[in-house]
Amino acid sequence: FGSGAGLAEPVLSSGTWEILMSRSKDFTSEEEQLQMGITTELDALPGWYNIGLNWMGSGPLEWIRNMFFSSAGNPESYETLISEAEQLSPGSNGIRVNPDFVQEDRGKYPSGLFGLRLQTSRSQIYRAALESLSFKLKKGLVALEHAGGFSASQIICVGGGSKNRLWNQIRADACQRPIQLIDQKETTVLGAALFGFVATDTSQDIDEAREQLNYNPQMIYPSENAQVYQQLEDSFMEFI
Q1: Which of 84, 100, 168, 195 is spaced 20 to 30 Å from 211 by Cα?
Q2: Are strands 112-114 and 96-98 parallel, antiparallel or unpaired?
Q3: Mean pLDDT by 10-residue block, N- to C-terminus, for the chain (240 residues)?
């Protein structure tokens, strides 16, 4: 609620862990959803539900930063990681990553890096991780749409991971959906505060409380690389 999302508008809270949730009036909790770890919670408004799932997010990115972008214990800036990876073509020269660094014996491939060569650069490894996480998002989005019986037109992205411009663009390209960024990053606390305003009669109702906010939405649209990622999708999905 604090992110400004309505029905069928998924919200990705991106941090060490990524949580993808969507408000919905329907949900499915069959064996397929349970096996994927999809949860369904009651929404803040009666009759609505929050369908969601989570996976390891920027944790693998921090590991890559510490392993390949550090010198004498001093990590290089995030701008260095991003700017180097921006110079590369989609696909990272065949490097693939299974980003489930806290899982064991799950899926066809264990967590880790695949396709390494003597010529592999650190920026290829970093970009490959961004790409794999972005396809992880698409996999989750498809699962949520199926569970809730809806089709999302965009994804709202909040949290620390929403500050990474390259990651946001790859997300849009991989999911073939616009990524909407907003000024507010800590939207869980914000949502709770909005309901507090109503409880203390600071606002007459919850809609009025949220209308006082200026989210200043910024849209990241799929680029020409979206077609390339569509062709590469199977090679990424195999590892996640």
Answers
A1: 168
A2: antiparallel
A3: 92 95 91 87 91 93 92 83 97 94 69 94 97 96 93 95 96 98 88 92 90 92 98 94
Give which of 234, 217, 230, 224 is closest to 154, Cα–Cα: 217
Tokens of 155: 């994804």
Tokens of 141: 């989005």
DSSP labels, the chain? -TT---BT--EEEESSEEEEEEEES----SHHHHHHT-EEEE-SSTT-EEEEEEEE-HHHHHHHHHHHSEETTEEPPHHHHHHHHHTSPTTGGG-EEE--TT--S-SSS-SEEES--TT--HHHHHHHHHHHHHHHHHHHHHHHHHHHT---S-EEEESGGGG-HHHHHHHHHHHTS-EEE-S---HHHHHHHHHHHHHTTSSSSHHHHHHT-----EEE---THHHHHHHHHHHHHTT-
**Residue 169 burial by Cβ neighbours in a 10 Å radius (0-12, 13-18, 19+):** buried
Residue 209 in tokens = 């409380």
